[in-house]
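Q: I'm building a small set of examples for a reading group on sequence design. Run inverse folding on the following structure and report the sequence directly after it, with nothing in between.
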């Protein structure tokens, strides 16, 4: 068995890296896949989420968590992909050469962009680095307010940077912030529009990497 590796990266802080990483993990797990989370961010938000989850739900051998140094991310994830269907790497909000192992090893790099021009400007760095390492990238617009001119503009500008932009946009919803704090994914909260959003995003990602 050889799993797929997804790295979530973006130098802008608070763009939704950890949110997308854990929600993707929960969606993949709910579909019967095993998932290993790897946190290379010293802030440790993903680890906090995982600890909350352990106290809420208990241990689950099909959803594992470990930390890694940034430079050790490729070694760690290559090892994990022998045991898990998917390995999801969360990264810190900075772009430097330390990020390269996590980009190089990825089957797909997911780049969340909180929907604003300022956030988009910050995205060029990770796109350049990913291009150098020949990594496949998918930009995901996060915290959008649907049907606003801003989200249309930012999506267009992202495409002009030469990036693939996901058809699915992730709206600004309290359930994402709330479920993160509870160690859950948005699909595990009482049904709302976030379920369809995360399901569609997971479908799109799977269509790219199988
Ligand atoms: N779509 C969304 N709707 C509402 N809140 C969101 C959404 N996405 C992220 N958030 C909230 O924004 C904050 C930052 O998100 P998150 O921690 O995922 O970003 P990050 O890119 O991992 O940040 P950092 O760069 O510090 O690691 C969190 O409080 C999170 O709950
Ligand atoms: Mg984070």
């Amino acid at each position: 068995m050889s799993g797929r590796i997804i790295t979530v990266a973006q130098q802008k802080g608070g763009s939704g890296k950890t949110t997308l990483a854990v929600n993707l993990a929960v969606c993949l797990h709910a579909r019967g896949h095993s998932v290993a989370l790897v946190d290379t961010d010293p802030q440790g938000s993903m680890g906090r989420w995982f600890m909350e989850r352990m106290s809420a739900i208990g241990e689950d051998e099909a959803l594992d968590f470990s930390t890694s140094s940034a430079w050790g991310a490729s070694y760690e994830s290559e090892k994990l992909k022998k045991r898990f269907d998917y390995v999801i790497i969360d990264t810190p909000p900075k772009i430097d050469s330390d990020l390269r192992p996590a980009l190089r090893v990825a089957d797909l790099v997911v780049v969340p962009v909180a929907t604003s021009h300022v956030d988009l400007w910050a995205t060029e760095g990770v796109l350049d680095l990913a291009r150098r390492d020949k990594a496949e990238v998918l930009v995901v617009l996060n915290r959008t307010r649907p049907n606003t001119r801003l989200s249309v503009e930012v999506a267009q500008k992202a495409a002009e940077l030469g990036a693939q932009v996901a058809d699915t946009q992730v709206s600004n919803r309290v359930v994402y912030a709330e479920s993160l704090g509870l160690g859950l994914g948005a699909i595990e909260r009482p049904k709302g529009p976030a379920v369809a959003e995360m399901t569609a995003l997971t479908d799109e990602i799977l269509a790219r990497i199988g």
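The first strand starts at residue 4 and ends at 8.
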